[in-house]
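hey can u check if this looks right to u? its 471 residues, i copy pasted from the old doc so theres a chance i mangled smth
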Amino acid sequence: MISLIISLVVLVIGFIVYGKIVERIFAPDDRKTPAIEINDGVDCVPMVPWKAFLVQLLNIAGTGPIFGALMGACFGPVVFLWIIFGAILGGAVHDYMSGMISCRNQGASIAELSGKYLGGAAKWIMRIFSIVLLILTGTVFVNSPAALIARLTPDFLNENFWIVVILLYYVLATLLPINKLIGKLYPIFGVILIIMAVSVLGGIFVGGYVIPEITFTNLHPEGLPIWPYMFITVACGAISGFHATQSPMIAKCITSEKQGRSIFYGAMIAESVIALIWAAAGVAFFGTTEMLNESLSGLGQSGTVYEIANTMLGTVGGVLAVVGVVVCPITSGDTAFRSARLILAEITHLDQKIIKNRLLITIPVLGVGAVLTQLNFNVLWRYFSWSNQTLAMVSLWVATAYLIKEGKAACASLVTALPAAFMSAVSMTYILMANEGLGLPGAVGYPVGIIFAVCLFGIYLFLLYRTRLKR
């Protein structure tokens, strides 16, 4: 229990102290933001800070900080450390830089930013990679809420019925101006999300559940190694490349660069609090990682969430908590498809003020998502998780290149270069060792992953040195 309390305190301190350091490195100023300078009435629309924060939080807080945290809890309380330090030193920095650099480039997507700071080849690779990730994300965030809602409704309103309903909502959320549907519903959803998190946290304390203290022991019942599997499994609660596709969306809506720390860095810390609560609930409710893993294998992620919420909080509280869990993925799925539309609009140069042009992109994208909903959720999740962390790696290198180009001090660019190198090792090691990757033994995966990260860090040092010589 003490570990949970300390972890929550550390997250708050991280926002106050390290968030301020990152903000000073970026140095926000009073220049006009896209919401003021462009203001197209569709995507670049001024939004008050508290609403922008809630929209950003709901954009990024899909099932990742809930499902991912529960699966990460199978490794034991060591997952708390990854959530805390991954968020403060990696995820929140990643989200802040993605949003703020986009803001200074007319709200450009991470794909366009990759092209500007890493070269033309990187732009096209990231265009394709981002679109694939966003469609996978949107699909994952159709299946998981549909399964949960189906548990709360009569049998004839089955999962397939709710998949159709959610997809229809996604059509509207993708097409309409951001302030018409998303801007009006998200504040309400934000309140539900906050109540859900507080309720589960209260259920842990009031119910007298025992939360094991943090240890470095790997308790995964299937023997999966912490490196790299835990760092891939818990993505959205610690660091997530998906957020690099979402931050530019809100970068189009903030009215001052100085709002960035509370909106981008702050939303990531808030998401980490959610992940921490659900990881704690998983290890406390089931007592052992073996029991938690059995539930995830037998009931699935949705069933496990329902079991925890319904037992801890009773019927009414359980329904409220599950509704909160449903809100999370839906409010990330709709913006995933919206982000895909915006990236495709950048490629095709179709003016998004015209509804016909928005339809030309939206319908095919959602059609692909509808087909993918028929695939196995666990398979989708694994590919989503790896592509998610790989995108985080690239986004951090983009931020590093930006800081170098802006002439920031060498120690300043380390705030992005170090987590970028770390995520490079994680992503490469995972794809080499995982069954959905090459399935190679650790004797190959570990050294190759480290060598890959060292090589990229070496390139960073070379570019930093060359830039300094030119100056």
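The longest helix spans residues 300-348.
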